[in-house]
């Protein structure tokens, strides 16, 4: 069964600093990979997605993620964090064959931004 | 742009009562997914529908049922509510190739069982 692991439960960075949120997946083939952001009490907003092609994916709000097959990772990065980026970030995996289209989410990483 | 609409936004019920949550997908989206997110938890898949038929089933309790109607909106019916059912319930919609293009989530219904 596929699974997603986000090793860091909480991360605190200073405003303006760079950010990297880790995501590792377990799957028999290359899955579809997603990053979502959730502000407190709000819904899930898609930041970016990967399913094939260029392994460096650009998303909204200045985020990017890099798919590394050898490491089964899909880490999210941002060169300069803004205070408004403070939120919960979820990595998610979708199945390859569309047989069962649900997403499987990682446990989430809560990002706090220091002024 | 139209988004996924969920109603109500907030719901307070007592134990053993029933609750009905509604989800209106993005126009022309034919697939609806329901997720449950407990406090401090990641979203857990409950059930999904494609073209009004159940397509996948996750960790949905037997006390819950759901359906998708001819206009593609979906309702999640929850009976014999328990305190542990208190959570944020998300609905997402997609075209059938949802795994390829991602899903659009609604803002959720926060259910509190007292």
Tell me what you see in this structure:
The complex is a heterodimer of chains A (115) and B (114). Chain A has 115 residues and is mainly β. In chain A, 0% of the residues lie in helices and 50% in strands. In chain A, strands 2, 5, 6, 10, 11 and 12 form a six-stranded mixed β-sheet that branches. A four-stranded antiparallel β-sheet of chain A has the order 3-9-8-7, with no helix packed on it. In chain A, a hairpin with a 5-residue loop joins strand 5 (32-38) and strand 6 (44-50). The relative contact order of chain A is 0.33. With 114 residues, chain B is mainly β. Chain B is built from one helix and eleven strands. Chain B has one helix spanning 98-101; strands at 5-7, 10-13, 19-24, 31-37, 44-50, 53-57, 64-68, 74-78, 87-94, 104-105, 109-113. In chain B, strand 7 (64-68) and strand 8 (74-78) form a beta hairpin. Chain B starts with a strand and ends with a strand. The mean pLDDT of chain B is 92. The chains are: A mainly beta (115), B mainly beta (114). Chains A and B meet through strand 5, strand 6 and strand 11 of A and strand 5, strand 9, helix 1 and strand 10 of B.
